[in-house]
Amino acid sequence: MAPSNTRVSLVKHVVSGAPTLADFKVESASVPTKASLQDDQILVRTLYLSADPYMRGRLSGAQDSYVESFVPGKPLVGLGVGVIEASTSAHYKEGDVVTGDQFKWETKFISSTKGFTKIPASSGISPANYLGVLGMPSFTAYVGVVSLANAKAGETILISAASGAVGQVAVQLAKARGLRVVGAAGSDDKVEFVKSLGADAAFNYKTCGDLSVAIKQAAPNGVDIYFDNVGGEFLDAALVNMNNFGRIAECGMISQYNATAESVYHVKNLVRVIPRRLSIMGYIVSDYYAKPDYANFITEVSTMLKEGKITYKLDEVVGIENGPQGLLDLFEGKNFGKRVIKVSDAQQRL
User: Fold this and answer.
1) How many Å apart are CA 335 and CA 197, to the nearest integer?
2) Is 18 helix (H, G, I), strand (E, B) or coil?
3) Which of 227, 229, 238, 309 could disulfide-pair with 161, CB 3.0 to 4.6 Å?
4) From CA 46, how far away is CA 159, in angstroms rounded?
């Protein structure tokens, strides 16, 4: 079979509203070769790409974001895992498996070594798990639950999108610390999954009716910590149920990422922050990789993984050509777990 290379690029920026498949281009591209490498470069064959909610902002063309927007006509770039097929770097050799945040959405690509980290060959852990349970989403959960909210035994934590890439780890980290855990998810099978992770109560936010009432029923003694993944109406309902001195870890607001000026939800209960003395903490996980939190996270979660004390659900889409739809699904809640795009097999040579 002749070598092939498939590329996914952005056609145009989508400032507001919902992106569609027409905003992406999937095409065949020239196959990079070892002869094309310059000094200190690597040729990477992609194994898995990560589809993440934060990428919606990168589609917008925004100039004032914490992460650069995608460039129309150029491949998307994000988190991934791949195998090195050729290298001119003293630090990487052919056959090394690497992860990082500079993965182009291509079957194969050439890059500098910046932004890549070698995965231990003897780890015995699936490469895809470095995008999930040992990757950015899991660390995001750790920062919110442990570093910012300072979760303590006996408290009640409410987690929205509790079956998602971040939420499922937040549930388990909180439960391991002795909290009462309440999770919300968008389907009955997702609710059952959240319960299987150890949540003390869980409900389907799409069918529960009044969100404030549903939260009150699941957390009759109030909420000490709200781990927010969705924003919008759910945040409003959580504010009504917060206890004095409660903490809100603002991880994401995916319900608002495709909002237009006409459809954006305006929070009505923010005034409760004052009498309840609430702390609302927005954060970007990349700020914490250079802090002790990251080493603590790796130690704790890798130990839990080896001991079988943590579960992590991956939602795999096969084929880089299906990557755009795999990404768009996130904004409609069609993923179940951490969405990854499988591009090739570790032993496969393209």
Assistant:
1) 17
2) coil
3) 229
4) 33
In the chain, count of helices (H) and strands (E)? 8, 15
Section 233-243 average pLDDT: 98
What three-state secondary structure class fits 29?
coil
H or E stretch including 12? none
User: Kind of pairing, strands 41-50 and 108-112?
Assistant: antiparallel
The pLDDT of residue 174 is: 98
Alpha-carbon distance of 50 to 331, in angstroms, equals: 15
- φ, ψ of residue 158 to 5 degrees: the values are -110, 130
**Structure tokens given for 313:** 């659900």
Burial degree of 125 (CB within 10 A; 0-12, 13-18, 19+)? middle
Mean pLDDT score across all residues of the chain: 95
Give CA–CA dist 349/45, Å, rounded.
9
Decide if 231 contacts 56 (C-beta within 8 A): no
In this predicted structure, what is the pLDDT of residue 123?
A: 67
